[in-house]
Structure formats: C-alpha cells, structure tokens
Write a structure and sequence with these properties.
Length: about 290
C-alpha cells in the first residue's frame, strides 16, 4: 500500500506536535521542505522587529510575536492565549510562512485565489472589498480555493494554501456550513472548508474587486501599469523588502480585470457568475492558442 502523502500548505510540509493533526491542510510532495510549528503561552512585553538572513522575529507589545528560522525551517509563536489548531493554520501561520516563501524566492501577495480546470486565478482588492466572501461563493460551487489571505507564487505557479476561507460576521449568514472560531487576529472569524486544490498550479490571471454605487456589474481589463501597481500594493511581507522586480514582470503579462459590483447578495451571485465566465472565456482562448 502506498503511504499517504504528507500534509501542509504553500509547498511546505507542516507539523505541530503540540496541536496534533492540523485541519484544512492539503497533500504535499514528500520532497517538500519540512517546517516545524510550535508555540509558547506568553505575552509580548515590547515591540519586536529583528530581520536577518536566517532569522526573523516580529511582534507587538501585548500581542503575538512570530519567530521564523530558515534552517532547519521552523515557525514559533509567543502568544497570549492558547491557539486552536484551526487558528494555527490560519491566520497565525501566514506571517511565518510568508517569510519562508520569500526566502524560497516567491512573490507573496495579500490576495486569494481559486482553481479552474486550467489553473489558478488570483483575487485582490482593498480591505473589506469582499475577497473572502467571493472566494467562499466560488468554493461552494465546487471550485478549489487555493488561498484566502496569502498568495505565494513561484514564477507563474501558485502554491496552494489551506483549503478554507475565513468569513466576517456580516457575511457568514450566507454560508450555512461555516463554523465559529471565536476571536482570532483581533476579530470574530467563521471558518468555511472548501474543496482542496492541487499543491501547485499555473497562475492564469487575476481579478481586482471593487464596490459600485450603481446597480450594474462591470468587468474591465486592467492596463499593464495598473497590474504592476496592484502587485506592489498587495505585497504581503514588506518586513523583508519587496520582491525582485524581475519576478513580478511575468505576472504583469498575465490578463487581469477589475470587477465592480453592488454590495447586495443578489448581485454577489451574479458577480461570481461573471468571474467564472471571464475565467472560462480566457481558458478557452488559451486552449485554442495552445
């Protein structure tokens, strides 16, 4: 019998002996780098920001401090409460994983992504632009969600994160299967499990979400300059500096669209239709070209 593949996220095998099996992780290749996760019940007594080539320590007084080691790869927390396994997976792991991903050479974006039959599609937007609710709606239609908050990209390939989306109280009523997590990361969260994606998929394009005061749903292509601006704007871990510009240029060449829609939930379903329609048309055009 073939042994099961190890579990993890973002191209890393993740293990946390203190918490046991972590939820919503996805299968990884046996050759994926192993990362040990641990935590200590302690409060940060001062702001911390120490950045080196092989070690990062980052935290705020009275909150959580994150320690990241390059070799052997490890993420540790000093945290003022006992974290649940679900909270460890997200959002607590994302800062540490983003540092490891940048050390690996990835572009890391504050963005989400979903998977279709031809690859992955990024989803960006300003704070409270509705990224997670759109991704949750896409997931409910059976499409794998590759990322909710941290999008790690190696060249033009997305490393898939945990198969879940975290929702706010004002949107959770639309998703019957979401479960409460309590207050994590300074706000109430509700976890919705989504179909797991492949561990690594080609990135095909991205969407930028925005709200509209009108009643119509609008989709318009982004010019290359706007694409570059959004890629820089959404950098996840500026603590370790911006990525090599040469790594961003292949992403600028990908198709991208701005999606504007009204805030009501009826339009929300129509917005998902438009996103999937645009992704499907782009997929068909790509296949014809290939």
């Amino acid at each position: 019998m073939t042994p099961p593949r190890p579990l993890g996220a973002y191209g890393f095998r993740l293990s946390c002996p203190q918490a046991g099996e972590l939820p919503n992780l996805i299968e990884q290749e046996a050759s994926s780098p192993a990362v040990t996760v641990s935590w200590r019940h302690a409060s940060t007594v001062r702001d911390v920001e120490e950045v080196g080539e092989d070690r990062v320590a980052y935290g705020f007084r009275g909150s959580t401090t994150y320690y990241v080691e390059r070799d052997p790869a490890a993420i540790r927390f000093d945290i003022p409460y006992v974290p649940s396994p679900a909270a460890l997976v997200h959002p607590l792991l994302t800062i540490g994983v983003s540092v490891l991903a940048r050390w690996r050479g990835d572009v890391t974006l504050h963005a989400g992504a979903f998977q279709t039959r031809v690859g992955g599609w990024g989803v960006m937007g300003a704070r409270e632009a509705g990224k997670s609710s759109l991704l949750a709606s896409v997931g409910e239609r059976g499409y794998p969600v590759l990322a909710d908050d941290l999008l790690a990209i190696d060249e033009r390939s997305i490393w898939a994160g945990p198969s879940c989306v975290d929702l706010r109280p004002d949107t959770v009523d639309q998703f019957a299967d979401a479960t409460p997590m309590g207050i994590v990361g300074g706000r109430p969260r509700f976890r919705l499990a989504t179909p797991p994606g492949a561990g690594r998929v080609p990135m095909r394009g991205f969407f930028v979400l925005d709200w509209s005061d009108g009643l119509e749903i609008e989709v318009e292509p982004l010019a290359p300059q706007e694409r570059l601006e959004w890629l820089y704007r959404q950098e996840y871990i500026r603590l370790v500096g911006f990525p090599d510009p040469a790594k961003l240029l292949p992403l600028v060449a990908l198709p991208a669209w701005r999606l504007r829609r009204p805030r009501d939930w009826i339009a929300g379903g129509e917005a998902v239709d438009r996103v999937l329609e645009v992704a499907g048309l782009e997929s068909s055009a790509r296949q014809i070209g290939e």
